[in-house]
Amino acid sequence: MTTAAPRTRPAPTTGPDGPVRLAAEGVRLAYDDRVVVDGLDLRLTDGSFTAIVGPNGCGKSTLLRALGRLLRPQAGQVLLDGRSIARAPTREVARVLGLLPQTPVAPAGLTVADLVARGRHPHQSWLQQWSTQDEAVVAEAMAWTGTGDLADRPVDELSGGQRQRAWISMALAQGTDLLLLDEPTTYLDLSHQIDVLELVSRLHAERGRTVVVVLHDLNLAARYAQRLVAMRDGVLVASGTPHEVLTEQLLADVFDLEARVVPDPVAGTPMVVPVRRLRR
Amino acid sequence: MTATADAVARTTPPDPGGRPRGRAVTVRVGPVSARFRWRSVVVPLVAAVAVVLLGAASLGRGDYPIALGDVLRTLVGAGTEGQAFVVLELRAPRTAVGALVGLALGLAGALFQTFARNPLASPDVLGITQGASVGAVAAIVLGGGTSTGALLGGLGVPLAALLGALGVGALLFVLAWRSGIDGYRLVLIGIALWSVAQALTDWLLTRAEIHDAASAYVWITGSLNARTWEQAAPLALSLLVLVPLALAAGRVLGVLQFGDDTARGLGVRLARAQGAVVVVAVLLVATAVAAAGPIAFVALVVPQVAVRLAGGSRPPLLASGLLGAALVVGADLLTRTVLPQALPVGILTAALGAPYLLWLLVRGRRTTA
Fold first, then answer.
1. pLDDT per residue over B246-292, tens digit each?
2. pLDDT at position A279 over 90
3. Which of chain A's residues have a Cβ under 8 Å away from the Cβ of B368?
4. Which intervals of the chain are annotated as region Disordered (chain B) (predicted)?
């Protein structure tokens, strides 16, 4: 890790103490002239499970895209294992950092087995297109996510929940330490949302993946993630454990929401019970 | 490198619909490994055999008919001198140009359609072949007239066509490029360029002398008449470079067909990969069109036929190329046998290819293109 320049205040760090795997340093993120995020700092430590929450349009997906090298910051930089991610070779990044875009599209007719196999792309070359390791990793990923039975089904014929499982299998087969997921539960009913988050949570707990996920549902975010990062208008408002972040004051500040926060009767994590929207 | 080759066949269980899906086969020799489906090998093989047989039948046809067996014997060097002259000098260039043009157009169509994720993205729709028409018609019509016309006339029709196709290809690339190429944008810009090129061609035709207009019209339809080794040789040489490049792009195409974000997440350098695919595809079309005119529909239809025959999620490159060759050679044979009057081959490729695609579309299970 490189030694950072002296700062006036420490950057918000998520996760237990440990090496910082992914960090944003004073990033300014913009689409053409429209600046979405400016001067944001964030550090994600090894083995952490972080959820980014915030109202629509707060820049959380934009931040995730920057962390995943899909968007180049106009100022500041993103560091992967201490190195500037913009300057690292694309393939090398793809072996360490995997990402699942919001509602990814699979080409018509592509089978689940083929989709998962594409996850091996960064490990393959023109001569070595399907090594024994590729085969083993793909089979294992499908068995682990329970998509083995779907192997020969076209992805576009699957239900939403099955499809998300297939995509997560692909990310697993990619074999990256870090995994970024952009709203993986969008368009899923509640039981499938739980199903997908259980799977992601197991990826973190059993496979030691460092996970960053953008989520809309605060209660699910509090239950599954170890750390929450709350954003509003491109600014990182709070970060910490769910208990630290999900306070009634924060809900008012970030979501314009008057709400009660009570312990989740199942997990004991904070649970948001909305009262009404506050007008500003 | 070890000498042992272990081929592991993995059979996949039938899907719930009861129809067994294609079996995937893995081949590993030392550090080299690849995986493919049986159908993706069988279809190109059958297409290759069809090209050879149709080509041989085509070589036998004419004022001096030669039996199929004698043609094949001549091709391997065992024919009489007279047969060799007729087959190799007089007739082979025509068939060779047909096969090579079909190969190039089929490949180019598959490349465009896959990376744009849009079956409409074919060189016919994107205006590249129309660009070639503008060049060729300008050379035919203006040749000798104005000073630029004299220049075009001096270039000759094939070179003018090549420049026209490359011009539109470059314009397409520049206009569609926005730190990467979006398939939809590419198709819309292509259609705009197509209209401009079409209007230019029409304008040139209205100004043309009647005999110039007639020969320009035959060129626009796409014809293999009176081809010599002069056209066939440069075409073969450029394909010797372009076809391996196109096939090498296959691996990255399998990832490019996902959305941009997914492709980049899988370690593809998007801009470079897309740029390389477009350049190769435009060069394939330009060389093909320069040799035989814009033979219609091959690049649009053949990849879609190929993907339905070979299975998989994208038009297979090799199968598209070989089926394109079979279609053009077969259509050329048909114009000279069944039909009472020899038509330009371009009329028949559209007339044959389109109904076959419609049949596959109506019959097929695939709901999307």
1. 999 888 998 988 888 899 999 999 888 988 998 999 999 999 998 99
2. no
3. 108-109, 156
4. 1-24
The position carrying tokens 């529909």 is: B297
pLDDT digit string (tens) for A213-247? 999 999 999 999 999 999 999 999 999 999 999 99
SS3 B177: strand
Q: Using CB atoms and an 8 Å cut-off, which of residues 264-303 of chain B contact chain A?
A: 264-269
CA–CA dist B36, B325 (Å, integer): 23
Query: Are A118 and B33 inside 8 Å of each other by CB?
Result: no
Task: Give B-chain residues touching A93 at CB under 8 angstroms.
Answer: 267
CA distance B184 to chain A (A): 15
Q: What mean pLDDT comes out for the span A104-123? A: 91
- CA dist., res. B220 & res. B213, Å (int): 10
Contact by Cβ (8 Å): A158, A112: yes
For the segment B50-68, what is each residue's pLDDT rounded down to a tens digit?
Answer: 999 999 999 998 778 888 8
Q: At how many degrees (to 10) do helices B38-60 and B298-310 cross? A: 130
Does B51 fall in a domain? Answer: yes
- What is chain A's mean pLDDT, rounded? 91
So what's the ipTM on this one?
Answer: 0.87
CATH code for the domain defined by A13-101+177-275: 3.40.50.300
Separation of alpha carbons A279 and A254, rounded Å:
12
Kindly report the backbone phi and psi dihedral angles of residue A8, in degrees, each rounded to the nearest multiple of 5, phi listed first: -75, -35
State which residue of chain A sits closest to B314, comparing Cα positions: A107
Number of structural domains (chain B) is 1
Residue B165, min C-alpha distance to chain A (Å): 30
Spatial strand order of the sheet with A178-182 comes to A97-100, A178-182, A210-214, A49-53, A227-232, A235-240
**B312 near A CB under 8 A:** yes
Look at B264 and A127 and tell me if their CB atoms are within 8 Å: no
Q: Does A121 touch chain B (CB under 8 A)?
A: yes
- Nearest-angstrom CA–CA distance, A212 and A226: 10
From the candidates B115, B264, B274, which should be mutated to test the interface with A, based on the most A CB atoms within 10 A? B264
Residues of B in contact with A98 (CB under 8 A): 265
pTM of the full structure? 0.86
Residue ranges covered by each domain of chain A: 13-101+177-275
- Asked if the structure places residue B14 within a domain, the reply is no
CB A137 within 8 A of CB A189: no
In a domain, B368, yes or no: no
